[in-house]
Write a structure and sequence with these properties.
With 147 residues, the protein is α+β, with helices and mostly antiparallel strands. The chain is 35% helix and 33% strand. A seven-stranded antiparallel beta sheet has the order 4-3-2-1-7-6-5, with helices on one face. 14% of the residues are buried.
């Protein structure tokens, strides 16, 4: 059924289609995806690594600076290191990772907004965000089972 709708919209376009039908279709697809996402498990051996170009917005509107660094994500924490600094954020304190498709992922650390631009395969930012989401979901399920 989804394939039929997708093909219809791809070949016929959305011109003349009521907006409510388009929104209902989008809602249905997102709903199905979220339902299936809950059944995906993260391998405990997960390890993502990327060389990045980092844009840092200084605290309280401070100066913008750029640096090269490396990001690592595993089931325990997110780590960043560069020539000027290194930090680690436990995943228990990182419930989500915002990103712009094909460009960067971002987070706040010590009152500074940091944009991490992978130097290779910029599309991997979605993988990073999804991995954090799935690990957060797993942690929530585990905590609810303990209670």
């Amino acid at each position: 059924m989804i394939l039929v709708f997708a093909l219809y919209f791809c070949y016929q376009g959305t011109e003349g289609t009521p907006d409510s039908l388009i929104y209902a279709f989008i809602f249905f697809v997102v709903r199905v995806w979220l339902g299936r996402k809950q059944h995906v498990e993260i391998d405990d051996r997960l390890a993502l690594h990327a060389a990045v170009r980092t844009k840092i917005f200084g605290a309280d509107g401070g100066p913008i600076r750029w640096e090269n660094g490396e990001c690592t994500l595993d089931t325990e924490s997110f780590r960043y290191s560069s020539d000027t600094e290194a930090f680690e954020i436990p995943l228990a304190k990182l419930p989500a990772l915002a990103f712009s498709c094909g460009e960067e992922f971002e987070l706040y650390h010590e009152n500074e907004l940091r944009y991490f631009y992978p130097t290779e395969e910029p599309n991997q930012v979605a993988r990073w965000a999804l991995a954090v989401d799935l690990m957060t979901d797993r942690r929530k399920r585990t905590n609810s089972e303990i209670e």
